[in-house]
């Protein structure tokens, strides 16, 4: 449950972060402070990211990668335009990763995935989490980083968990 300023509690699906300027790597680095990326294997899809945008040095990640690899690439990243990142506990063997490309919130809830991060058009992030603690930690870190955010609740208008 997330405590609102008025004293009410809200069970949320996740958090939406909208940037005024390009700060996509700032958001991903902030998330790495809240989420131990190394605890997960990550299913990555539709990633359009660059280590050096001027030199046109793309980062190639697709399919399942370890949290160590994702964390290393986020630290190299200058720019992230699109990306879908789905976290699966690393302790699960690869046989438990079937159906991990969740397309709807309902599929996410029923899957082994614990987190879905959607980044589109550089400025927009939707982070879905099964853990309220993680959502609270992200909200706190976003606020401390000066990022604007809104909680995603059951009235979420997103029908698909995809970036394109």
Strand content: 25-35%
Question: What is the total number of structural domains?
Answer: 1
Shape assignment: globular
Evaluate the radius of gyration. 15 Å
Largest sheet: 8 strands, antiparallel
Features:
alpha+beta, 164 residues
Q: Could you give a quick summary of the protein structure above?
A:
This protein has 164 residues and is α+β, with helices and mostly antiparallel strands. The strands form 2 sheets. Strands 3, 4, 5, 6, 7, 8, 9 and 10 form an 8-stranded antiparallel beta sheet that branches. A two-stranded antiparallel ribbon has the order 1-2.
Topology:
Elements: E1 2-3, E2 9-10, E3 14-18, H1 24-34, E4 40-52, E5 57-59, E6 63-66, H2 67-76, E7 79-89, H3 105-110, E8 115-120, E9 124-129, H4 132-144, E10 149-152
Antiparallel strand pairs: 1-2, 3-9, 3-10, 4-5, 4-6, 4-7, 7-8, 8-9
Helix pairs in contact: 1-4
Any overview of this molecule?
- This protein has four helices and ten strands.
- Helix 1 packs across helix 4.
- Strands 3, 4, 5, 6, 7, 8, 9 and 10 form an eight-stranded antiparallel sheet that branches. A two-stranded antiparallel sheet has the order 1-2.
- The protein starts with a strand and ends in a 12-residue tail after the last strand.
- Helix content is 24%, strand content 34%.
- Residues 1-10 have low confidence and may be disordered.
- The protein has helices spanning 24-34, 67-76, 105-110, 132-144; strands at 2-3, 9-10, 14-18, 40-52, 57-59, 63-66, 79-89, 115-120, 124-129, 149-152.
- It has 164 residues and is α+β, with helices and mostly antiparallel strands.
């Amino acid at each position: 449950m997330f405590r609102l300023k008025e004293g009410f509690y809200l069970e949320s699906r996740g958090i939406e972060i909208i940037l005024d300027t390009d700060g996509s790597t700032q958001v991903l680095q902030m998330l790495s402070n809240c989420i131990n990326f190394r605890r997960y294997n990550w299913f990555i899809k539709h990633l359009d990211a660059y280590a050096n945008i001027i030199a046109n040095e793309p980062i190639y990640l697709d399919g399942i990668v370890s949290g160590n690899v994702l964390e290393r690439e986020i630290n190299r990243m200058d720019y992230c335009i699109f990306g879908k990142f789905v976290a699966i506990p690393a302790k699960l063997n690869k046989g438990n990763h079937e159906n991990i490309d969740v397309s709807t919130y309902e599929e996410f809830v029923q899957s082994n995935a614990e987190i879905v991060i959607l980044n589109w058009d550089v400025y927009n992030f939707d982070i879905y989490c099964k853990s309220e603690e993680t959502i609270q930690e992200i909200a706190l870190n976003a606020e401390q980083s000066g990022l604007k955010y809104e909680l995603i609740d059951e009235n979420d208008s997103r029908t698909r968990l995809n970036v394109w």
